[in-house]
Amino acid sequence: MNKITIIIVSNDISIRRGLLTIFKSESIFDVKGGFSTEEAVKELSLAQPDVILLDIYDDVQKYSTLIKRFKNECPCSLILALIGDDQVNSITGILAQGLDGCVPRGIIRVNLIRVVEMACRVGVICLPGAIKKTSFFNNTIQLTTIPSNVAALTRREKEVYHLMTKNYSNREIANKLYISEPTVKTHVSSILRKLGKKNRAQAIVYSYQIGLQEDSR
After folding, report:
1. Is residue 34 part of a domain?
2. What is the pTM of this model?
3. How many structural domains comprise the chain?
4. What is the pLDDT of residues 135-165, one digit of tens each?
5. Following CA atoms 20, 26, 28, 34 in sequence, which dihedral angle do they give, to the nearest 10 degrees?
């Protein structure tokens, strides 16, 4: 199995060094380096990593333009952000810029490794549970009609979308629906295109925003 290439981005040198130590000790990762945000923009176009782990330690909105630049330089790279509990209220705004998932800052080492591996290997994304308690999700629309972009999904695409919002991986969706994994990938691409979303994270957020999901609180 190919190694997962990863770049660590943080303006805090101690955090950067700590994350580098964690990922360099795991044989499944090929660590391409740790950089500040300004250094990273120069390095990414050459490295084209599987995943960019971005430490967001201050004002979340400051990273909106940076994430766009990362996506322009590395359109195939996943961008996962480390965030604190106090940043949850602001994170939904930058999901629209191409952020693929968020990892709670206090996550234990073994789970951090697993989250990044699962995101790259099977497409499972991470959104902190606290994000569903923000005003963004509390002010969901009570659906009386299905939005036209959702209505445009085929029956099978709706089934796949439902499982996507439950954070099933492509493999799990394939097993659940008795179809092949490549077929699932095709459906996911079609769903994102019809919904006008860039990635799974945005599609999941959208499902809560329009009231397709019932909060389990």
Report:
1. yes
2. 0.68
3. 2
4. 444 444 444 457 888 889 998 999 999 899 8
5. 0
